[in-house]
């Protein structure tokens, strides 16, 4: 689960990870008041959306006076910000972070993440602040400092020094930096983060180290033990159909094609999207109703997909293992009757009791197109939309 | 032969008195798996059908000689259940549970490094040696004894592959789902090396998906160490970057974990690539 920069910085403050003084606001008036509270200029006006690249997209600007704060807040609030992470449709800016400007000496990069291969928390740092770490990794891998922390031991003093000296932190700021990194690790572990990225981490002209930006992603599987963090979820940043699907434990992602699809199991769902593409059509979504989907799940899935106006046809692909095809077919028939389907639906079923399942579909008197196998299903769905 | 499990495997089921646990324990018994014990804390002394239930895994192992465990407990208790099984001496631990926090798994993985056991999963369908032992939630009847080894990160996608193989007359030596989580126990290379050493396995089907770099590493391993033919498939070529595709581990982060890179790695290392899932059975028939 992603959160906003201002929320991440509030959490950082609680863990004594230094951040610039600032306040989140929702209107131009509030922006001016917040700027006044900072007691000096320049002030930074930052758009708060769940996507990176805000600076390049025109969502982060420096104001030298109160008039500029007003102009910029007016300009950025309500704009649709397009960055490389938002997609071409962009994201509506509804909140701003008003922050005091800093005298920056150096920009650095610091992140913590769970490394899959080594099953550990890895600290990544580089002196190329402001640059994407992947770009640094590709072009100058020797400039990346990578330290692996033993999860059973926690972070050690020598590891803090390894990162600090690697970043060429001056002696006067080293103690503060070690504290920052050590606290950041504590924050990461205590809140089940999957990623914490500070880009840039800055060294100011008076030798202070500060997190100028903050990106935090939490492990969704661990949110059950962090009820407080769940309150930070911002539904405005999510697709409304995805929010609806999440209420029913459906794994759903809205995409830009026109073939809706419902599949049991995540791997098979991905493969089904690929098959649709292979046949010359494009998937409108990813929808995994779970390996042993109930008829209720199927009904909700169908309802959500049909609510998506760009969907012109639906492919249902089920491998009935534990889930029996006859029970599933009955679920589809019930769901189809309740949801009033008015676009072509192709169904491919395989597995336990498949013949009984096919019979139920055939006798239902509904306009459902059966497919005999995956290739047949792909052909029929492509024909339906092309 | 087969790998990791066979007709002599003595299984205990953690979480056997729950809905999922009892249902799948019964399915395993029906298939012929020797289910010798169940564990549910606080329900020791009861029975699930004819299977004795114990309070702890250690008691179950001591009294029944169980050497493998299948875990079907809710995710908050998953990590603890795995460590309990490892500590009690289970050699094979199959964690079906989906949704264990990743930092729990990070700790578990480091804990297991000090134990002599193999963890399969979590978030996986399990392992089956057809007509001998089924430890997992896969439908037993689509499998057939034979000589093809199957490895996958997925559940129903694996059933799809196995079903096509069986229908075309190609049986399987052992089928393993290693799970869709980013941090898991057994990886592709562990299984590939076991299949290479197994006399009964003559060919391998490897089913990967987007996210991480396990497929790329496996591809390099195959080129360097394996003589048996491998057919590979990758799911998620149309997946958008930065989104978690159902499985916690199936996510393209920046430029890493893309399907294209994995398929390229397969091709570069002599793996027969199947691009269309509907054709995987036919391609295996041709290659094998």
CATH homology superfamily of the largest domain in chain B = Succinyl-CoA synthetase domains
Q: What is the count of DSSP helices of chain B, taking H or I runs of 4+ residues?
A: 9
Number of helices of chain A: 13
The tally of strands of chain B reads: 14
Number of domains of chain B: 2
CATH architectural type of the largest domain in chain A: 2-Layer Sandwich
Largest interface: A-B, 57 and 65 residues
CATH architecture of the largest domain in chain B: 3-Layer(aba) Sandwich
CATH superfamily of the largest domain in chain A: ATP-grasp fold, B domain
Averaging pLDDT over every residue of chain B, what do you get? 95
Q: What's the Cα radius of gyration of chain A?
A: 25 Å
Q: Your description of this structure?
A:
The complex is a heterodimer of chains A (386) and B (288). Chain A has 386 residues and is an alpha+beta fold. Chain A has three domains: 1-19 and 103-236, D-amino Acid Aminotransferase, Chain A, domain 1 (2-Layer Sandwich); 21-101, ATP-grasp fold, A domain (Dna Ligase, domain 1, 2-Layer Sandwich), CATH 3.30.1490.20; 239-385, Rossmann fold (3-Layer(aba) Sandwich). Helices cover 37% and strands 25% of the residues of chain A. In chain A, helix 12 links the parallel strand 17 and strand 18 (368-371). In chain A, helix 11 (325-339) packs parallel to helix 12 (354-363). Chain A is elongated and about 80 Å long. Chain B has two domains: 10-120, Rossmann fold, CATH 3.40.50; 138-287, Rossmann fold. In chain B, helix 7 links the parallel strand 12 and strand 13 (230-235). Chain B is globular and about 55 Å long. The two termini of chain B are 19 Å apart. The chains are: A alpha+beta (386), B alpha/beta (288). Chains A and B meet through helix 9 and helix 13 of A and helix 4 and helix 5 of B.
